[in-house]
Each structure stands twice: as C-alpha cells, then as structure tokens.
Amino acid sequence: MAKRLFVLTLALVIGTVFLVGMGRDRVDEAAGGRTLIRNASMVLTMDPALGTVENADVLIDGDRITAVGPGVDASRAKVIDGRGKIVMPGFVDVHTHLWQSLIRGCATDKELNGWLGGCVLPLQGSPVNGADAYAGTRLSTLDAISTGVTTVTDWSHAFNADFARGNLQALVDSKQRFVFAFMAGTDPWIAPEVRRVQKDVIAPNPLAHLMIGTHPANWNVANVEASEKLSRELGVPLNVHLLESKADPATDQMGVLRRAGALRPGLLANHLVHVTDAELDELAAHDVRVAHNPLSNMRLASGVARVPEMKARNMKVGLGLDGGTNDTSDMFNDMRAAVGLQRAQSTDPARYPTPADVLRMATLGGAEALGLDKEIGSLTPGKKADLQVIDTQALNFAPKVDWASQLVFNTQPVNVQWVFVNGVALKKDGKVTGDNGRVIADAQAAADRVRKYLGR
Amino acid sequence: MAKRLFVLTLALVIGTVFLVGMGRDRVDEAAGGRTLIRNASMVLTMDPALGTVENADVLIDGDRITAVGPGVDASRAKVIDGRGKIVMPGFVDVHTHLWQSLIRGCATDKELNGWLGGCVLPLQGSPVNGADAYAGTRLSTLDAISTGVTTVTDWSHAFNADFARGNLQALVDSKQRFVFAFMAGTDPWIAPEVRRVQKDVIAPNPLAHLMIGTHPANWNVANVEASEKLSRELGVPLNVHLLESKADPATDQMGVLRRAGALRPGLLANHLVHVTDAELDELAAHDVRVAHNPLSNMRLASGVARVPEMKARNMKVGLGLDGGTNDTSDMFNDMRAAVGLQRAQSTDPARYPTPADVLRMATLGGAEALGLDKEIGSLTPGKKADLQVIDTQALNFAPKVDWASQLVFNTQPVNVQWVFVNGVALKKDGKVTGDNGRVIADAQAAADRVRKYLGR
User: Which of A25, B40, B150, B242 lies 20 to 30 Å from A41 when distance is taken between CA atoms?
Assistant: First the structure.
C-alpha cells in the first residue's frame, strides 16, 4: 500500500513537472540573448533593398536584428519555429492617448467636441492622479503589445505633474519603445517638470523619446507659444491635433501655428481631415509629418482624412490608434479602415492607400513620421529588434492565397504570436507577459474614480 | 531498473490522463441537456420587453432558452460562471459566401467586377467540386462560430451540382443555423436538384432554411425568371445582389426584378449602395429586406450603402460579412464599420445606425430580415438557444465603462468564449470545437486547386 502511494505521488510529481515544462518560456526575457526565428514562411522586411523573403531566418542578437536570410547560423541562439508564420516589423503607432482605456466606450454618441466635453476636459483640475494614469496606461500598453505595436506615441494630457509621472512610469514599465508627448503650456510647474523628465527619464532610456504636445487654437495662443519655445529649447518635436473636426478651421489653427513659428520639419500633425489644398501645400513645404487615425475619424464622425492628397505631396504619414477615441486596439483593423474608408468614399480601388501602402504606413512610414526610421520600421540588419511573428495557420487567416493582402484584410490581434521590442520578447507564444489580471483590476478601480470626476 | 521504468511509465500515463482531464468539456455537446449561465454580469436580451439585465442567469433547456433572470433553478444543469461576462444573442449573418475563404486576399486591388472576374467567375465551368466547396465552407463556418455567428446566410454560387452538395454538407456538419441560398437558373440540372435538396436536406433539418439565389441584370433575364418561378413553387424567398457597384444601375436590375414579379415580401436584397430614393420607396413598399455589408463595401470600393434612408422607410436591415469580399470574419468589426462609415461620410454622430442600432441589426434585425425573428434574434424564453458569452475581463475590453458601446467598439472575436446554437455549444471556453488543423490543411489544398482554375 505504501509503495503504491509512493508510486502515485511520484507519478503526480512527474506529471506536474511535465506540465510546467510544457509552459516554460524557451526564449529569454532579458535583452542580450540571441533568438533565431528559423524558417519563417515569409519575412516582410519593409526594407526596399531586401523586399519580402520566403523561408528565411531572422536573427536577433541583443537589441538588434543582425541577420535576415536563409541558413543563418543559430549557434547559442534560442530558436522559434517560423514555419507557417510571417515575420514583420512591429507596428509604429504614431498617435494615441494611452490613459484613455479608462474611458473606453464613453460618449459613443458624440463627435469630437462632445466626447471631449463629456469624457476628457472635466478631468482638468480634477483629483485624477498618477495612479489613475499608471493604471490606464499600463492596460493600454499591454493591449498594444498584443496587437503587435512595438512603438507608441503617447500624447499625454498631463492633467497635473503626478498624472504625467504615473503615465510616464507605465510607459517605462511597458518595455515598449515610446514617444511621450507631454502637453505643455504656461502653467509654472510644466517647463521645469518637462526639463527634469528629459534629463532623468528620457535621456538615460534607449527606448524613450520626448515630444511637446499642445493644442493650436485662437483661444490657446499663449500655451502654443510656450510649448513651441520649450520644443526648441529641448530640441524635440511639437505634436498637435490639427484640423480634425469640422469645427477646427474656425479656431485658426494654421494661423496660430504659423505665427508661433511652429511650422517646421518634425512637427507631428494629427488627423488633417478638414484641411485645404493650400494648407497641405504649406504643411508639406515645411516637412510637417502626419498621424492618420481612420478608426478614430469614423468613431468621432470627424470625416475622411485627405491621405491621397498628402501622398501626392510626398508627406510622411503614419497610422495611429488614437486611444479612447476609437476604442478598439486592433492595428490590422486600423490598416483595413485606412484602405476601405478611402475606397468607400471614392469608389476607386486604386485610391491611396493600397494594402501594400498601409503595411508601410503602419511600420516604416510611421518610423519616418517620428524621425526614427534610422533605428526602426524595417527588418534591416543593424536596426533595433522591434518585430512581430504572426501565425497564419488560424481559422480567420488560412489558407495561403496572398499573404501580404491577408495581413491587412484577415489578421486579428490573436494571430500575433510573438512581439519583440529592442530584442526583448513582450508577447510569447500568444501570451502578453505581465500580471494581466491585476492590471485589469487596477484599471477598473481607476476607471471608477475617473467616472466620478467626469460626473457621469 | 525494470521497476524504475515501470514507475516512469505509470507517471507519464497519469500525467497524460491529468492533461486530458484538464481539457475535458464540462458542458454536454449534444442538445437535450440543461446549461445554466449563472450570474452573468450583463444579459443583453435584445427583447424590448426584457431589455438589458444585470447579474442574471440564462437557462438553456434542450434547444431553447427557457429562463432569463436572477435566481433561476439550476438543478440538473451544467453551470457556466457568468461573472464578468456578457450574454447576448448569437449574430445573424444575413449575407455571406462561405466557400470564399478559399480566395481570401485575392485581387485586393480590384473593385467588385474586377474581383469577380479574377477570383470567382472563372470557376464557372471549371473542375471545382464538392470537396473544394466543403473545405472552404467548413473553414468559414468554424471561423464564423469563433466570432459569435450562430446563423449564416450562405449565398452559394453552386458552380455545379457536386459543388452545391459539398457546400451544403459542410453547412449541415457545422451545426450552425443556416440559410442556403442556392443560385438557380435555366440549367436543366438545377431545378430538380433544388427540389431534392429542399425535400431531403432542408426539410428534415430544424437548423436549415432555403432561399433561391439569382443575379438580376439585363443580360440574365431568363435565369432570373426561372429562379423567381422556382422560388414561388417552393415557397422560399429570392436572394439577390442589388445595386452594389456603381456599374450595376446600367444593367437595369430593378426593371428585371419588377418584370419578373420578384419585388415582393421576403425578397432579400444585398447591398443597396447605388439606389435612388424612388427605388428605395418601391423596395420598401414591397417589404423587401436588406443585407448591409459595410466591410465588403469598403474592400471592394462599392461605396456607402444608404442605410439611414432604409431606416427612414422602416425597411428590415441585417448585417453581413460577405465572405471573401471583405475577408475579415469579425462581426464586431462589421458593426463598428456600419457605425463609422456613415459617421465619417456625414460628420454626424447621430446618423443611423448608432451603436445600439447595430447591435440590433446584427441580431434581431437580421432575424427579421430573414423572416426568422419568431425563432431567433433575442434571448426571449421560448426562442431557440442561439447565443454567445463574451468575456469582458480582457486587455482589449476592460474596464467597465459602457458595456453596450464597448461591445461595438472594443470587442474582438477572441473575447467570445462560448457560442451555443440550438442549445449545443460550438465554442467552449474560447475554443471552437472541431479538428481545426485538419480543416485548415484541407482548405489549403482546395485553395491551391482553385488558384489553378483561376489561372492565377
């Protein structure tokens, strides 16, 4: 009897060890390791010189991509089986507001200004704090990783210094590459805090970049001028919402930017829906970059952005999910909306952007818009290892017909199996790493507080 | 040594049994059982008399919903924990072509007629067969189940009798509720085959319904007349593509239907994009039903369907995914496209449909369009148990702010945890039941054959 019990116990122990072993990560979390994605069925490099390669390996060494091609030496590397999988650059989201997962589903019956008035602006001067910002941003970063986003551009409302710190800490903790666009202005706390952030948080972190956010409008001139001044002082771009809603042209946004001297290379202009040809000419002449957010434009009844006209002027355009204003965090959906919205409006299937165009817009195009294309945006050996591995053997994706088109029209975030940022795996075998249950609970508690501040 | 080997073997056996046990279904697959979804955080019944209920139970007994409310007696029922979950009716997809998963991603640079010419019409007269149709349809049905679709309306090109049989068999095997729209015409094999199908396949199957598909156009009058005649003989509705592309009005679609006597209650008209006010008046006066397919209209550059104008005439409108012409099989995406496309075009957030309107359109509205609203479309005790359970505690959905809006703007198919059709669970705890690997392999083989027939 004792022996039988011993055998049973041993069996259970071995069974358990077997189970645990099955779930063990075979790829190191820390950078510095070597990971080989072997025999990927397709590698969409987005590098014009390399193109799209079939049955190839991708080697990650430390924080960089070091080789793309067949028969790469895998010694000392952890190996991911790439058969049936597509490897492509991680998405570069050029415009979002990550704290806004706390107001998902808020005022879905309103256009931009109604939504802002109901769900965002009342937080100015409210007790909303760093813990709230942290909770919302943490949830959003995990969600962004899940859909293959490796770089986020987080336009932070920075309602107060504590909020901005919580927001920023969550970005740091996400291990994603990020641009933090700090909403500046004339409030005395802001400029010293932004300088401190640049020195203490951004400069030492190879994943971090800074921009200055502001809102050009004839009722906000002093803040725009202070922001532009700070942007020049720190040598970082300005980041603005421009001609998004049909109500925006009446606030002389272009005039305010022009008089502040802000129309210059690197300025990131979000939306550009209600923009004239002459205004586009002027923006293009100054190498102003654009964040296109089609899902947000649909949700907020903003209209159809003039993306073909931007292309005609060779403007640098990236894609954004735009936080709570489109709610859904599906970059594949954002790509197909970018294609489909233009097509439905024009009834012209050749209208820009095509599926190939949006794949570029969501990766290398976004990196160009942010001025980071030397570092990210394509699977070019030497660039940072920001990439995603997509499983094609799924009910919503198979069979193989034209995979590049299927990436745009068929893919869902659940198909993203691996996401690497700077060589570190943040999604592994379909699971985003992190204590997701706790992040969700914290976000709920913060959303409940925010709801009170909004008086909803 | 022998004893050690014995212990190891026993351990592995027990470990394996443990693994298998973990995956064991706790809810019976066969109809006839009782399943209680207990303490669902929200039950969106779509029944105007019941509304939306919080913290309620939903009881499935056999093939029907028998109770919705708090404290339902659960004796003898398998129990699903509904905390943190939303229960709502399964989606009613009122227009699709399920075989077209075989041409996913095909000719994504073309509008409707270019796509048809490249990816569909060459199959007429080709060796495409029942095995091909079965493989594509089987993949699509599993995929539709994954996104919460419980009823599909499958407009089958029925390229030949064998193709139609394979297509139909896959629908039967899916255990979904379905409407098979059999493309008819003057070919001598068709009418006898459709009569046989109605008698042998549709009539004995409580999940099955029949329609007659045809294409109204001035080059196709004889086929339309034969189809209308068969539709009247069998007492089933006609199902047509109507004014989808800007090239369609030139083919006198309305005149052909009018002269054939086909403008009558129950006719299902798919798309209605390039339709005039007078034509809408005429269609509404005859109680013609509409399938709205916004994702397809975007993909194929068809335009923006005149849905608000249909609503103004009290027409019955449902939502469709439209097979390979929109590729993606995400009904949540289809709902938000239905909202966002109208909003982007009009810049009016109040424009029909609102988020609440599309939830109805995707469920009860679709059932009305198909004439099945006595049986399905809402969680009304006595109706068939076609429903889905959605997990809200996900990175892309949490926190709770306004769940009804979040269903439209935040949800992804991966959040659908359970799908029941006629009381039978077809998606269980996030997994679609079936040999998905084999289905995918069979679809790939069929897609490879079809590609040859298309000369691509």
Answer: A25
